[in-house]
């Protein structure tokens, strides 16, 4: 199993795919709406988008809870 550290260090790691997929699935307007849905501050989404903050376990679980994507699907989207 690939660790989160290995994924974020990978050249193919792109958290934007996950964020965009959740925005699309939940039909949200923007990152601000996503931050409200995930119950995190807007700068957290910005830092994830700009690769300065990895998607950690807590936010990954929250993404799963609100989107009904499986954890495996979310991880695959990050590493695709």
Describe this structure in words.
It is a single chain. The model has no long low-confidence stretch (mean pLDDT about 90). The protein contains six helices and no strands. The chain has helices spanning about 5-10, 15-25, 30-40, 40-50, 55-65, 70-80. The chain starts with a helix and ends with a helix. Helices cover about 70% and strands about 0% of the residues. It has about 80 residues and is mostly helical. This is XRE family transcriptional regulator. It comes from Pseudoduganella aquatica.
Structural class: mainly alpha
Secondary-structure element series: HHHHHH
Can you give the helix content as a percent range? 55-70%
Number of domains: 1
Number of strands: 0
Compute the separation of the termini in Å: 15 Å
- Look up the CATH topology: 434 Repressor (Amino-terminal Domain)
Form type: globular
Q: Please compute the radius of gyration using only Cα atoms.
A: 12 Å
Q: What is the beta-strand fraction? A: under 5%
List the uncertain runs. none
Global mean pLDDT: 89
Count of helix runs: 6
